Amino acid sequence: MCNRIVYEAVDIVEGSPQLAPSVLCTAQLGPLLKSPSRKDLSSNGILLTSSTAGAMTTAYMSTSFRYSLDRLQSLARGAVTGLALVAGFSACHHSAPPSSKLLPPSESQHAEATRVQLQALAVTTDQEAAAQTDAGLRAQKQMQAATIRARLRDGDFDVGDRVFLSIRTDSLVSDTVVVRAGRVIKLPNLPDISLQGVLRSELQEYLTTQLTRYIKRPDVQTMSLVRVAVMGAVSKPGFYQLPADIALADAIMMAGGPTQNADVDRTQVKRGSDVVYSSTLLGQEVAKGATLDQLNIRPGDQIVIGERHHTNFALIASIVGITAGLVSTIVVLRRH
Q1: What is the pLDDT of residue 310?
Q2: 3-state DSSP call for residue 295?
Q3: Could you tell me which residue, 163 or 36, shows the higher pLDDT?
Q4: Of 24, 37, 107, 241, which has fewest CB within 10 angstroms of its CB?
């Protein structure tokens, strides 16, 4: 691998790439450089994503030179240090196995669930729901099972989702395409390609098969992006277009990481007003290094980091003082 790399920022507005002078926050480089699943998408290197106002920022790290790899890895180590805050999230859940720890997805399990895995998970989740005595946790398990079955039936791609696509033939073509009405993607000079029923884990092989009809021996690489909200006690709350195969802990770091006031033990995943993962269930999954895909995160879901409740002793003392004064006044008045 080359010793030096440079990256350029590209704003994707309605699927059309435009050069922009912006650069990614260095804290966002850490999780992606550390994760073996972020290996080269093309000979041009690694793809990174973040969020800007009204647009998704995509950075391509090319094999040119400006920033040394050693420097970027040093920055990455600083960002990954922040994951220790998120690790506390799982350490406090006694239901997780003692040996559990945060692992990169590629070391623990497939970063994107296969159809066979989802079918087995649906059965297991149904069984866990039936055995659950707590009504709230049972409802969450039932919702998770329903989400899994919807994925198996409809696939992972909804209108508005984005997919990074790299096609190498005699030349390299890379672009971020938007899933349009009817769950189709449009590529230049080609018929629409339907993604109905396609899972993220199937996307690369599926598109390779589809493009082989029109292109001779295409080398296809893909990355699925999911739009989620990271809210609550994080430094940069907001909506982010994130790779579906990154760990939930990395997603939190993309939003600047937990604040000093964060209580990661109270983190939840919400879908609208419904709680998909309570802190109890989520802590077990984070301990396994679960990715957004493995958690069945859907576009629009909210990852909400809890906040600590601080006792305002000054206010309490003030209230006690006022109450004591009122009591004393009443006693004096009654004596007279």
Answers
A1: 61
A2: coil
A3: 163
A4: 107
